[in-house]
Amino acid sequence: MGVSASFPIQDLPQQWRSAPRRWGHPLHSLCSYFAMFPPQLAHFFVDWLTQPGEAVYDPFSGRGTVPLEAVLQGRRGYGSDANPLAVTLSRAKTKVPSKRTLLKRLAEIEASFSRNTVSINDEPENIAMLYSDHTLKQLVWLKDQLDRTNDTDCFWIATILGMLHGNHNKTGPSGFSISMPNTFAMAPRYVAKYIREHGLVRPEVNVFDMLKARLERLDLPTAKRAGGKSWTHDATEAPPPWLIRQRPKLVFTSPPYLQVIKYGQYNWVRLWFLGETSTEVDKRLMASASLSRYLEFMRSVSANLKHVVAEDGYVCFVIGDVRRGEEDLNLAQAVWDEVLHDQNWHLHGIIADEIPQDRKVSRIWKHNSGRATKVDRLLLLSPTPRDLPDVVPPSWTQQLSFLTTRS
């Protein structure tokens, strides 16, 4: 039975916070990503504010959480980003090949691999220090053979990106590298120093075998599931005409926070595999300590979304508080007061979502962890005034799975 639309909007976080922590399709964990919000959050809003067959869009798609949840719930999932890493991960989750197709493609690449014909002499020292010679040769071969414009290859690339580095445990390495955090990579000099001081040994692993084992845990469809699209796009630039024609019913997104993360810098290993550099990627992304510059950035983004979202649709921005000196800045409130109010959006509310401290990736930064947000705030808007639909509490007892029919 649904909850009345008069349900207190500030109580909404209990809807997704009541879900099991590990809830979600295995594909959500294909590759970790900084500042990723939980799939429970995206699931709730897709389920609440859209109907099957409608479109959902995330202009800062990150690891593809929103498009994947949309696809899993029978919606069309669209995701764009200026970061090539994010686009690759999102594409892998909106155009999911069958397990059979993936294994066939990997077998082709493995059969053509010969360690004697692959040279790693020109690979950067920062990369060579992470992998054994044989493992690096396998990675270089895969890097050369895979084409991210191909759906099957893109999925394999995304899978590899999620395993390029990881912690070691009692059962062995979870990734291909020396023991490292999975979510991000520390600066190369720091990693080199850590390797020397702790005597880390590059593990001798078989990349092909580890990829096959990883595939077994992903709950893939029996036929290709193409339920959406991902593309490279700067959200401050005009949206593509085809997207405007689609008029997504829901835009759900988390824009970059104010000077918290440099996505290129912390993903330099993954960007190497994509043939990109962290410096060039960070040049394309919003990262500023200036509040006025951030508000101008959001002004462009929200103005563009006015042309995208359906007239009877909704936009939800997830914006975290930011530490400024000794105080926390309520950035979501500033965006509403200085930007969105003047653009005549209808505000349903600004919802505070407290982040449990033990779930913050930044906790491992120790004395630097204070610069990360403690509260996410959800700015829930619509282009024109309208009532919110009734809240129907989701059932968290069942995991979503892909439809087996070809779309």
Automatic annotation (TrEMBL):
SUPFAM superfamilies: S-adenosyl-L-methionine-dependent methyltransferases (SSF53335)
GO biological process: methylation
Protein name, UniProt field: DNA methyltransferase
UniProt-listed Gene3D superfamilies: Vaccinia Virus protein VP39 (3.40.50.150)
GO molecular function: methyltransferase activity
Signal peptide: none
Domain DNA methylase N-4/N-6, residue spans: 32-87
Keyword Methyltransferase: yes
